[in-house]
Amino acid sequence: MIVVRRPQDEEELASLVREASGHGAPLAIEGGGTRKGLGRPVNAGITVSVGGLTGITLYEPAEMVIGARAGTPLALIEAALAEKGQMLGFEPPDFRRLYGTEGAPTIGTVAAGNLSGSRRLWGGACRDSLIGVRFVNGLGEIVKSGGRVMKNVTGLDLVKLQSGAWGTLGVLTEVIFKVVPRPEVTQTLLLEGLSEARAIEAMSAAVGSPFEITGAAHLPAQAGAPAQTLLRIEGFAFSVEYRAEALAGLLKPFGALGRLDGPTAAALWRDVSDGALLAEPRDRALWRLSVKPGEAAAAVAAIRTTREASAFYDWAGGLVWLATPETGDAGAAVIRRAARQASGYATLLRASDGLRAEVPVFEPEPAPIAALNRRIKTSFDPEGLLNPGKMHSGV
Amino acid sequence: MGAIAFPTPQADILARRESILAGLAALLPPECLITSEDERRAYETDAFTAYRRVPMAVALPRNTAEVSAVLAYCHAESVPVVPRGAGTSLAGGAIPQEDAVVIGVSKMNRILEIDYANRFARVEAGVTNLAITNTVSAEGFFYAPDPSSQLACTIGGNIGMNSGGAHCLKYGVTTNNILGVTLVLVDGTVVEIGGAAMDAPGYDLLGLVCGSEGQLGIITEATVRILRAAEGARPVLFGFPTSEQAGEAVAAIIAAGIVPVAMEFMDKPAIEICEAFAKAGYPMDVEALLIIEVEGSDPEMDATLARIVAIAREHGVKTVRESKSAMETAAIWKGRKSAFGATGRIADYICMDGTIPTGQLPYVLRRIDEIVKHYGLRVANVFHAGDGNLHPLILYNVNDPGEAEKAEEAGNDILKLCVEVGGCLTGEHGVGIEKRDLMHHQFNRVDLQQQLRVRAAFDAQWILNPAKVFPLDGRAA
């Protein structure tokens, strides 16, 4: 029987962790619960929800900075930013459609997962926008790192370390992000009918141009629909129009550059960022491969020689979403080998609980890195109370 | 000066000097090991020249394997190691100590791979910041972080300090522009973190190593992100009657959704010093100067600048000078970029590096003026207005020991002020030894102990850059 505890403030959360420490009782950490199914199953009798820690604590539009308690719904943050013509620069994905979950994604889990959407190509990852955190470590201590200013090199950067640690190094209680202006105009340009390899070349040419591409995705042909290569440019109207024309010239060798209308494009980018294009069928394993962009198509081709897989590309090829039947190891060995050959790695984003207990969800680490990470884990959480085994078995 | 303490050199290490030198000599060819006092003296300090300590030896390995061998040896012998790039740290991050071996990366200066299609360059740690941009500029690419010392400073040092520059408002600092590193751990183990992909798996060790000031290992290679440069860049110079108005104009520009590639601020003393040196044609009848640079094609820059100029006029701008040519652009930037050098011609100075929330700007400038006057000194303010990273230059006379001490105290007061208003001790120069003893003002005991435990996960014995970053007291993790 799992007990859910829902502290109402940071102090209560800290004492809850101290109490758990007294009993050696591990804790599963949860935000909005929309990403249940991501990570290895955590074996803990107590779930700590940070959903009670809500509210924007700081928003200075002129300083392009926003801070909020970890359990604040992402939607609330995005609405507050939109009101002042701003947004998070990394287009945080929403995985509810992948996992079939309900509830509201929280800003804390966005930070803890370092998950970034299509704009990561231009705007950097979640961890690049995250500039300050407060967290409770496994000793039940409240720790801060970074702050509210975007240039800060004071001391070790524990902010970055928390982003992508999935709550294994601390329970985030407050996060501070730098933000960017919401563009006046967004235009999505479209190339049709390209092969995967050719699409990567087109995206590389576009991203290697001076025209500031904020999204570059390729959706291979399927069920009669032609392949689509999407390029997004944003900014002031005069500038977007100029760059759209310039790109049409640059990309002529790849075909005529069409334009997608605003609402269609916005929905499509949402689907790309959220991985929703591969959400169904639900029983397929879903992988995310981060690779050298130019080798993405070859990596996918190599995987397809051994198993059936559907895929699409984001980040100009740097990110591959790949769905494959959950048979055997769900392709883990061949997929990880292909990703490594493309100078990258793979994450098993979605699979059954059983498979995720068997197959490493996160990329297995070379021995010296694994040893280092264990020591880092111990430095935050000596008793291994926080999300034990979420990332790697025994950590 | 001399208020900053160094640990007492460990007598047992000094006593073993001959055997340690012999041990190092077995690992490196003679031209890679410096032992004579004359030559070691060249490494006694960095750009924080008020403090000097001659190291026991200087190792200049040629590759990762040699760095690994030297580190493993020093670790086994418990000999402190001070990593060094080009020695341009303004915070004393590369200042050695008498019982330490300096490991310099200056001989590791090859560019290993450039990949335009995948937008990265792989370089050895001793390659200079500017050399990367120079190597890729023919293809229209650049490496974004541009610290003032970019002609000399190395990418290894940049990663160690998480260096910034004038253009990070748009492009971020070093940590946002590095994809991977080869890191030699204290026991000589070589690990690869990240690489040509945009993200690295597992804990963000890359983010942790950036700005760790040589406390966690020695970087021998780096994969850096290169970007295609904009079609053009153009600065405009704005003179304002007051600093407040300049600050309000900066806020209004950001509120209008414009993120210029750079927004640089100079106060009256800085304007006078820079103009006297660079003859850049800066207006002398204003209290504050902003240099705002935008990028894009000519029509894009025209349109963006028109918006910025309109905003500046709403905030009482007195002088507007738009660059019409490459020569004018160079002249506008020459004054700003020579600020430190020009100041050095008229006085000795120490350069502060705190960051503040930009909304606090008018208050902080007023307080800085009061603090410096209190000590009977002068100050010139140059800073990155978009991100609130201040560089007050406190002027003093180095031959007057009393003044030097006062300058240091005034600097400390200014940094404490930065923390008080919600900012931090250092935005891009690093803590080094300079701000080490002020860390208590930004972090409480619990915060610092957590950082120390993370440090200990890499180097439990305090072999790496031991007298830096963390206050000497309370170090037991």
Task: Describe the fold and architecture.
The complex is a heterodimer of chains A (395) and B (477). Chain A is an alpha+beta fold. Chain A has helices spanning 10-23, 74-83, 96-99, 107-113, 120-123, 126-129, 158-162, 196-207, 237-250, 262-274, 296-304, 332-341, 353-358, 367-380; strands at 3-5, 27-30, 46-49, 56-60, 65-69, 86-87, 130-136, 142-146, 171-178, 180-181, 185-192, 213-219, 228-235, 258-260, 285-290, 310-314, 319-324, 345-350. Chain A has 3 domains: 49-181, 2-Layer Sandwich (Uridine Diphospho-n-acetylenolpyruvylglucosamine Reductase, domain 3), CATH 3.30.465; 185-274, Alpha-Beta Plaits; 276-358, Alpha-Beta Plaits (2-Layer Sandwich), CATH 3.30.70. Chain A has 14 helices and 18 strands. In chain A, the strands form 5 sheets. Chain A has a 5-stranded antiparallel β-sheet. In chain A, strands 12-13-11-14 form a 4-stranded antiparallel β-sheet, sandwiched between helices. In chain A, strands 16-17-15-18 form a 4-stranded antiparallel β-sheet, with helices on one face. The longest helix of chain A has 14 residues, at 10-23. The mean pLDDT of chain A is 96. Chain B has 477 residues and is an alpha+beta fold. Chain B has 4 domains: 11-104, Uridine Diphospho-n-acetylenolpyruvylglucosamine Reductase, domain 2 (2-Layer Sandwich); 111-228, Uridine Diphospho-n-acetylenolpyruvylglucosamine Reductase, domain 3; 233-339, 2-Layer Sandwich (Alpha-Beta Plaits); 347-436, Alpha-Beta Plaits. In chain B, the strands form 4 sheets. In chain B, strands 15-12-14-13-17-18-16 form a 7-stranded antiparallel β-sheet, sandwiched between helices. A 5-stranded antiparallel β-sheet of chain B has the order 5-6-10-8-9. A 4-stranded mixed β-sheet of chain B has the order 1-2-4-3, covered by helices on one side. In chain B, strand 8 (178-184) and strand 9 (190-194) form a beta hairpin. In chain B, helix 10 crosses helix 12 (326-337), helix 10 (268-278) packs across helix 13 (339-346) and helix 14 (361-374) packs antiparallel against helix 15. The longest helix of chain B has 20 residues, at 401-420.
